[in-house]
Structure of Pyrroline-5-carboxylate reductase:
Amino acid sequence: MARESEALPPVAILGAGSMGGAILRGLVRSGLAGGGVTVTNRTAAKASALGELSGVESIALEARHDGNTAAAASADIVLVGVKPAMVPDLLREIAPVLRAGTIVVSLAAGVTIETFEQILGPDVAVIRSMPNTPAVVGKAVTGIAAGSTAGPEVVAVVRRLFETCGAVVEVPESQIDALSTISGSGPAYVFLLIEEFTKAARGKGFADAEARLLAEQTFIGAAALLEASGEDPAELRRQVTSPKGTTERAIAVLQAARLDEVFAEATDAALARARELAAGGA
């Protein structure tokens, strides 16, 4: 198995949008992209911004129509970051130029490993991944699932790649959609809670800037404390909740709202939609 400090082989990111761009920046920050990184984007404007990163070759497809095949042919690890509906056509485009043993990693929600393997054939190792947007700040949680020809060495290399922008969880593909409802969609749930908490602060008479500061920094500080302490969230909650105090009264209201059922219902709805998308639903 490769050492953690050893440089990654050449990487290509096809469709380096918000997620692909976040992973790219994690790679560059880590210093592990010793083999170089080639990325593609449709427009020259997007390509130019990424091309300013150290060690990155950025190709604008509007200027170079063979950009995806050129990038894929030069890489040992190819990340596919285009929209899910575009994935099959892109795979057919790059399949003829992929060398045997190339690792192809899907960033596309709802596209199965079977789809990748049917188009790319048995000589390519496929990994399906589900990162989330905190990759931008190096705090992602990425789920990865191995395809039928992706052995432990392949998984280890892909794990190292994603660890440059956060934590990694290995799961069977059958769990990827469920994982997406927790960590994939999860940042949106947190942002919604912060929105509502900010509204509550405004309702208590705080100005917009003050309300936002109070709400956002409370979430940021609580998350940092959780990470630093290693305590269970329930224990940290108990430490803040004095018997017969103000926090206890507020927690009682929140628990009466059956947040456990709300989160279960919300993630169930997200899972149902993920399965619709995987089945080809619009």
Observations:
- Residues 186-278 form a domain with the ProC C-terminal domain-like fold fold (CATH 1.10.3730.10).
